[in-house]
Q: What sequence folds into this?
């Protein structure tokens, strides 16, 4: 009697499973038959013949594309098919998009000097740029990077130079903690330092309070 009950239960389970599979298969077929795809293509420019594939950078919103390319014995940055100014070279960590996808920055080499170009505008020349330190602020308004002048290193934010150090720790990065403050890890002499840089706008004290009239 027990064996008969087991057979009935097993048969019911198998039958229910087969019915479920049939229903699922039927649903998939019907759904697939009803699905249609519409496609819209937006050109991001022709591929430059000298494109350097490893330099390809896509904006956060996926609507812009920038990359470095060779042009004879020079290099340039191409953004959405538009060629920028030619330089002796473009650093491998470039280009970089801002968080809002509206701005782009890169480091270029000219006559053995390095300069940062933001939205086509050149910054001051320096002797080197810290590896992987070119970064935009969260609000996309400012660019910060570690630069070398002679045998010293410093942080440059929005074109303004900070204090000098013997160097920045290998593998460390410039990190924006907010739109107006960032930090880095550096060393000077026999001391390791956490460097906190606050961006103070004209007419305000570091605390944010208005300056008293002179």
A:
């Amino acid at each position: 009697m027990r064996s008969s009950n087991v057979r009935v239960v097993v048969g019911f389970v198998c039958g229910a499973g087969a019915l479920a599979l049939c229903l699922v298969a039927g649903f998939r077929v019907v759904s697939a038959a009803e699905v249609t795809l519409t496609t819209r293509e937006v050109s991001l420019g022709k591929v430059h013949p000298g494109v350097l594939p490893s330099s390809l950078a896509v904006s956060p919103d996926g609507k812009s594309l920038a990359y470095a390319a060779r042009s004879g014995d020079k290099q340039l940055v191409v953004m959405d098919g538009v060629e920028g100014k030619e330089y002796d070279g473009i650093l491998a960590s470039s280009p970089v998009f801002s968080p809002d996808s509206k701005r782009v920055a890169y480091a270029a080499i000219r006559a053995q000097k390095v300069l940062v170009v933001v939205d086509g505008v050149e910054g001051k020349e320096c002797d080197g740029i810290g590896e992987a330190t070119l970064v935009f602020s969260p609000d996309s308004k400012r660019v910060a990077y570690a630069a070398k002048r002679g045998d010293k290193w410093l942080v440059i934010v929005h074109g303004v130079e900070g204090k000098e150090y013997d160097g920045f720790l290998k593998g460390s990065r410039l990190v924006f903690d907010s739109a107006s403050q960032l930090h880095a890890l550096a060393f000077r002499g026999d001391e390791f330092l956490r460097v906190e840089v606050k961006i103070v706008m004209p007419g305000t004290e570091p605390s944010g309070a208005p300056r008293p009239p002179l």
Q: What stands out?
A: The first strand starts at residue 57 and ends at 58. Residues 1-39 form one domain. DSSP finds one helix and 18 strands in the chain.
